[in-house]
Amino acid sequence: MDHQSNISKQAKGGLARARAVDPERRAAIASLGARRRWMKPEDRGEMPEAVSQGTITIGETVIDVYVLKDRRRLVAKRAMARALGLKSEGGNAFIKTLNGKVIGSRIPPELRGKIENHIVFKPLAGDPAHGYEAAVLIDLCTFLMDIREHLLETQKFLADQAETIVRAAAKLGIIALIDEATGFIDDKRREEYRELWQTFIREEAAQWEKAEFPDDLFNIMYKLYGLKRLNPSSTRHPKFFAKFLRKYVYQPLANSHGAILQELELKNPIVYANGGRRYKLFQFLSEEVGLPQLRQHIWKTVGIGLSVNSKEQFDRSFYNAFPSARALKPGDTPDLFAHLDNDS
Q: What is the DSSP track for 86-154?
C-alpha cells in the first residue's frame, strides 16, 4: 500500500504548504515554535497556574507559598508583607513601605524591577493571586540588612526580620543541598524540613526579642567608674562599657578562659569602620546551654558590684569569685581600663 494513502488530506495539505516555504523561513518558524515552548506563560499571554501550594511558618507568621507548572517557586505578595513583620497584611502595605523615602531611594533598580513586576497566577482554588519568585524575598532581605544603618528607628524591625529569614533559610538550604548531592531527598522528608525551619526560626527570632544585659549591670558600671547616668531610660551607654562586658562577662564565661569569646567573635566579626559588629555577641549563644550560663554569670557579677564601692574592690571580689579568670597568662587580658583607674 502506498504510504501516501495513510496520510489525511489535512496532513497532505500541511506537507504541501511546508514544501512551498523556503528553508530559511521554515527554520525561522521552527525556532519561534521552540522559543514559544520555553517562554513563561505570562510571556505567551497566558496566566501561570499553580500545581502545588502550602505554607511555611516564621515565628507566628504563616506564609503562603506555591509551585507553578513551570516549577517556579512563589511567595504570595501578601505573605511578603507578613514575612517582614508589617502590621498590615495587604500587598499595598508592602509596596508602600518599599516606596518610602528612606528605602525607595536606595533600592537597586534590578530589585525594584522585580518587585514592581509581580506575577499574576492561578492558585489551586480561588481568585488569581499576586506573587514573587522565592529568590526575590531573599534579595529583598539582603538589601534591608545592607541598609540597616540608614533605616529610621521605626523601620529597624524590617532589617531584624530580614536577618531572621536569611539566616534560617541559609541553614535549611545547606541541608537541602547536601541531601540533593547525596541523593537523600525524599517526599517523606518534607515534614522534617518543615520542623527544621520552624526550629531555626524560633531560635533566631528569640535572639532578637531578648535584651540579655539587665539594667542593673549597667548601673554597676556607672557606679564603678564614678559616672552619672543622665538618662536612666536610655539604652545608649559609653562605648568602653563593651570592653567591660568582654573582660568580666564573655572572657571568663563558663571557665572557658576566653575560648567562648573567641568563637563568638569568629561568628560575629567586626564589619563596620567604627569597630562595630552586625549582631550582639549573645545572639550566637544557644538557648539550651549558652544563654543560661550567661544569665547566671551576669547576676553573679551584679551581686559582686552591689557589694563594693570601687573598681579595686570589684576586681578583688570578682577574681575571688572567678579565680580561673585570674589564672590567665600575663598579656592575655590587658587592663582595658587603666586610663580610667588613674583618673578616678
A: -SS-SHHHHHHHHTSHHHHTTS-HHHHHHHHSPEEEB-SSSS-EEEEEHHHHHHHHHHHHHTGGGS-GG
Question: pTM of this prediction?
Answer: 0.47
**C-alpha separations of 46 from 41, 69, 114, 122, 160 in Å:** 5, 12, 19, 10, 38
pLDDT of res. 336? 36
Rounded Cα gap, residues 276 and 158, in angstroms: 20
Q: Write down the domain spans for the chain.
A: 3-38, 50-194, 215-343
User: How do 61-68 and 73-76 pair as beta strands?
Assistant: antiparallel
User: How does strand 73-76 pair with strand 50-58?
Assistant: unpaired
CA angle 91, 93, 99 (to 5 degrees): 105
Amino acid present at 117: N
Average pLDDT, the chain: 75
> Which among 300, 306, 294, 297 has a CA at the least distance from the CA of 212?
294
Does residue 134 have a pLDDT over 70? yes
